[in-house]
Amino acid sequence: MRYIPKGVCSNAIDINVNNGIIESVSFTGGCNGNLQGISSLVKGMKVEEAIERLKGIKCGFKSTSCPDQLAQALETMK
Questions:
Q1: Using CA atoms, how far apart are residues 66 and 10, in angstroms rounded to an integer?
Q2: Angle at 21 between CA 24 and CA 34, to 5 degrees
Q3: H helices within 1-78, ranges in order?
Q4: What tens-digit pLDDT sequence spans the chain (78 residues)?
Q5: Spatial distance between the Cα atoms of 62 and 53, rounded to a whole number of angstroms
Q6: For the chain, how far is it from start to end, CA to CA, in angstroms?
Q7: N or C: which end of the chain has fewer CB within 10 A?
Q8: Is the CB of residue 14 less than 8 Å from the CB of residue 5?
Q9: What angle do CA 29, 76, 44 make, to 5 degrees?
Q10: CA distance 28 to 32
Q11: Which residues pair with 28 in a beta bridge?
């Protein structure tokens, strides 16, 4: 699934989930190193756990962040 985030530097988030487990996450744009780290950390994680850990994280003065947008994308997939 491709999700178009709002209010962050990344332009797209591509997510593969199988049986409630995150198989892969790839961000287009944004802070490459940090987003690769997030993608690596959530690989193999249950969707619900990732949402719980990432939802509500803010980036500086923004009301959202790339991790928060990933949580929102995962919520739309449920």
A1: 7
A2: 40
A3: 32-42, 47-54, 66-77
A4: 999 999 999 999 999 999 999 999 999 999 999 999 999 999 999 999 999 999 999 999 999 999 999 999 999 998
A5: 18
A6: 12
A7: C
A8: no
A9: 70
A10: 8
A11: 12
Q: Which residue has the tokens 């709002």?
A: 6
Residues in the chain: 78
Amino acid symbol at 38: I
pLDDT at 10: 97
In this prediction, residue 49 carries a pLDDT of 98
d(CA 34, CA 20): 24
Q: How many C-beta atoms surround the C-beta of residue 59 within 10 A?
A: 18
